[in-house]
Design a protein that fits this description.
Thiol Ester Dehydrase, Chain A; 5-stranded antiparallel beta sheet; about 20% helix
């Protein structure tokens, strides 16, 4: 499942160099992941009901083109791989001219809400990767 979130660069996201601050890209990616979870019907409340939280443990980002105030950006998110307790989402940030501004591989771990320890990726999340579930 691939999602796309459209945003507009705000004045508060610009640094002294006149472009989007590098840390803001990480925030944009987070918004894109939230959109992906929601589109997959895995809202925070749904995950909480399953007794699981997802925790970002690694982000490998490439900054490719600067973004400026007022630009319309598209953040795409799609699954790359899923293991026993971790999974990787590929994300890209595109400008309205169709230029790739940043791309990232984001690794997250499924964490048991009660024990705060890693746990198997729940079937409800695993299905978004096109993987067979335990009950299948």
């Amino acid at each position: 499942m691939k999602t796309s979130l459209e945003i507009v660069v705000r004045p508060t996201e610009i640094d002294v160099n006149g472009h989007v601050n590098n840390a803001k890209y990480l925030e944009y990616l987070e918004w894109g992941r939230e959109e992906w979870y929601e589109a997959g019907q895995l809202s925070y409340d749904m995950l909480k009901a399953l007794g699981v939280q997802t925790v970002t443990v690694n982000i490998n980002i490439n900054y490719r083109k600067e973004c400026r105030q007022g630009e319309r950006l598209s953040i795409t998110t799609e699954p790359q791989s899923v293991g026993r307790s971790s999974f990787v989402l590929m994300q890209q940030i595109w400008n309205e001219a169709g230029e790739l501004c940043a791309d990232a591989a984001v690794t997250s771990v499924a964490m048991d809400s009660a024990t705060r320890k890693s746990r198997p990726v729940p079937d409800e999340l695993r299905r978004l990767f096109g993987q067979p579930t335990a009950g299948a």
